[in-house]
Amino acid sequence: MVFFGGEEMISFLEGTLLKKDEDRIVILSHGVGYEVLLPSIVRQAYNDKKAGEDGDQVKLHIFYHQSERQPKPVLVGFNLDVEKEFFEKFIKVEAIGPTAAVKALVLPVSEIARAIEERDIKTLERMKGIGKRTAEKIVATLHGKVGKFALVKEQIIPAAQEPEDVRRQVEDVLVRQLGHKRAEAAQMVSEALAMNPGIISPEELFEEVYRGQRR
Questions:
Q1: Which of 12, 24, 149, 210 could be 3's S-S partner, Cβ–Cβ 3.0 to 4.6 Å?
Q2: Does position 139 have pLDDT exceeding 70, yes or no?
Q3: Does pTM top 0.90 for this prediction?
Q4: How confident is the model at residue 199, as a pLDDT?
Q5: How confident is the model over 82-91, as pLDDT tens digits?
Q6: How far is the C-alpha of 16 from the C-alpha of 27, rounded, in Å?
Q7: Same domain, 122 and 135
Q8: Which helix (H) or strand (E) holds 164?
Q9: What's the average model confidence in pLDDT over 135-158?
């Protein structure tokens, strides 16, 4: 089901999980397939869900973005309305647009909000694509405005996957879909994790494996 209201053309989607990619999914609703970008903290909840014409039923709160510079509508999905609300504040920071914000949100909203309120630049730098200068802009823009989000209970946020689960998923894709031998895949993954032991998602691990192969 799709709801329309206010300035947002789409604010909520409910339908069949038709397709899953690394950073997005496709939801089939009333005969229309909607491509929805998902931050890592949201995408984690879909790892075990079934995709296809008989896929699982899903519901997402939607941030809808369209502008003169971005004429093609961009839909960003969230499991919780409070996550969407935080995202709307986060993109008010200079130089952080919706697409960059989607990539950056690899930490729980509560952890990011606490870092902002405590002026914890180091934690903010752990977000993807966020350097020291941008982290300082985030604090300057949002400090004193996101305390509410620091109170989101951790247990209602999709938990990060265990490192071994991430490793196994990536190795399986390398072998079954990308044609690598099991031993070769295991070595590629081990080298990537050695270079970046802080990896918490399959998407990050794939990127590190790719960078490793280029090196």
A1: 12
A2: yes
A3: no
A4: 77
A5: 999 999 999 9
A6: 5
A7: yes
A8: helix 163-176
A9: 83
* Separation CA 108–CA 42 (nearest Å): 9
Provide the angle, in degrees to the nearest 10, between the axes of the packed helices 132-142 and 81-90.
110
Range of 134's domain?
A: 81-156
Q: Is 145 helix (H, G, I), strand (E, B) or coil?
A: coil
- State whether 127 and 149 are in the same domain: yes
**DSSP H/E element including 147:** none
CB 137 within 8 A of CB 152: no
Taking 50 as the threshold, does the pLDDT of residue 7 lie above it?
no
CA angle 74, 77, 79 (to 5 degrees): 170
Strands 32-37 and 24-29 turn out to be antiparallel
Give the separation between CA 47 and CA 161, rounded to whole angstroms: 9
What CATH number does the domain containing 145 carry?
1.10.150.20
How many angstroms separate the CA atoms of 79 and 95, rounded? 25
Amino acid 78: pLDDT: 95
